[in-house]
Design goal:
With 330 residues, the protein is of the alpha/beta class. 34% of the residues lie in helices and 18% in strands. It has one domain (6-11, 18-327): Inosine-uridine Nucleoside N-ribohydrolase, Chain A (Alpha-Beta Complex). The strands form two sheets. It has a nine-stranded mixed beta sheet, with helices on both faces. Strand 4, helix 5 and strand 5 form a beta-alpha-beta unit. The N and C termini lie far apart (42 Å). It binds beta-D-ribofuranose and calcium ion.
Length: 330
């Protein structure tokens, strides 16, 4: 074998099967902040994204799938996309939220038609297969309704012990909700699914509104995004729309938006970004006023053992610096 020149530059991206990279499956309802989370994950040197699964939520599942395929293609990465649930586990899809994410989920920006199709397999089947293929190695990162994951767990309950951890964007532990006074959108949209996960025994990190609302991207950072990147125009148009939606409710912050979904990916990559509190968490599935509430037992003597690491504080500056440098907002 020919000797390698000593000056050879180190590999920027380790090969896909490198043990140094954390295997993840990202579950999305793309969605503006989902789009940012996808980019953050695909541009990571520390994560190996086995695949991306899609669900209804911010938009219907077909739009979420198309948006996801388009974004993956813009990064040039070879990551498969699996279409998932069109409805919640036992409820119909509550409908999209065009006033936050635009009619097409990406702030009405022009989205290039993807050339690739979703894989033929269902999202839940893909999740089961990958977890069984790499027992103890896969972190599941749902940043949407938990429907696909719950379907995988119900399909094969044995996977609960083989999933390394679930790092979810969802819930509101010690802060208000965003759909109702007590419920966050990803949990409210499919409370039964979230309950399956919290009762599964898999270790869970809950990246809820307690921390995601403390992260924020500002308009000036967005404007500085590297114009040479193939996704910059799409991101800028989509995020400007998203910022306008947030401005209606948080006028004092000016052009700003929280980075809900990217923070969950960032915590999967680097758990040290958030301070957590071990608690028992369950989900309200029937309350008139409290449907979708993440009920966190913060009492001195809880009656059930802890089942989740609830994020209660975030190093927002460190996260934002990493996010901006990775996406070229320098
Ligand atoms: C969550 O709901 C969705 O609208 C966002 O994409 C995020 O996953 C925030 O509550
Ligand atoms: Ca989302």
């Amino acid at each position: 074998m020919a000797a390698q020149p000593e000056t050879q530059a180190p590999l920027k991206n380790p090969p896909p099967d490198s043990p140094r990279r954390q295997k993840v499956i990202l579950d999305v309802d793309t969605g503006v902040d989902d789009a940012l989370a996808i980019l953050y994950a695909l541009l990571s040197d520390e994560l190996e994204v086995l695949g991306i699964t899609t669900c209804c939520g911010n938009v219907d599942v077909d739009t979420a799938t198309r948006n996801t395929l388009a974004l993956v293609e813009l990064t040039g990465k070879d990551v498969p996309v699996y279409r998932g649930s069109a409805n919640a586990l036992v409820r119909p899809f509550a409908g999209p939220v065009p006033w936050i994410h635009g009619d097409n989920g990406l702030g009405n920006a022009a989205v290039p038609e993807p050339s690739r199709r979703p894989e033929p397999e269902d999202a839940a089947v893909f999740i089961c297969e990958q977890v069984l293929r790499y027992p103890g190695e896969v972190v599941l990162v749902p940043v949407a309704r938990m429907t696909n994951l719950a379907r995988a767990y119900l399909f094969d309950p044995g996977i609960a012990k083989s999933v390394q951890r679930i790092v979810m964007m969802g819930g509101a532990a010690f802060c208000p909700g965003n759909v109702t006074p007590v419920a966050e959108a990803n949990i409210w949209g499919d409370p039964e699914a979230a309950r399956v996960l919290f009762r599964s025994g898999t270790p869970i990190t809950m990246v809820g509104l307690d921390v995601t609302m403390r992260t924020g991207l500002t308009g000036d950072r967005l404007n500085r995004m590297d114009p040479s990147r193939p996704y910059t125009e799409l991101v800028q148009q989509a995020v400007r729309f998203y910022m306008r939606a947030y401005e209606e409710h948080h006028a004092a912050r000016g052009a700003w938006c929280p980075l809900h979904d990217p923070l969950a990916v960032a915590v999967a990559e680097d758990p040290g970004l958030c301070r957590t509190r071990r608690c028992h968490v369950d989900v309200e599935t029937s309350g008139d006023l409290t449907l979708g509430m993440t009920v966190v037992d913060a009492r001195g003597k809880p009656t059930a053992p802890p089942n989740a690491d609830v994020c209660v504080d975030v190093d927002a500056e460190r996260f934002l610096a990493r996010f901006c440098s990775r996406l070229g907002m320098v």
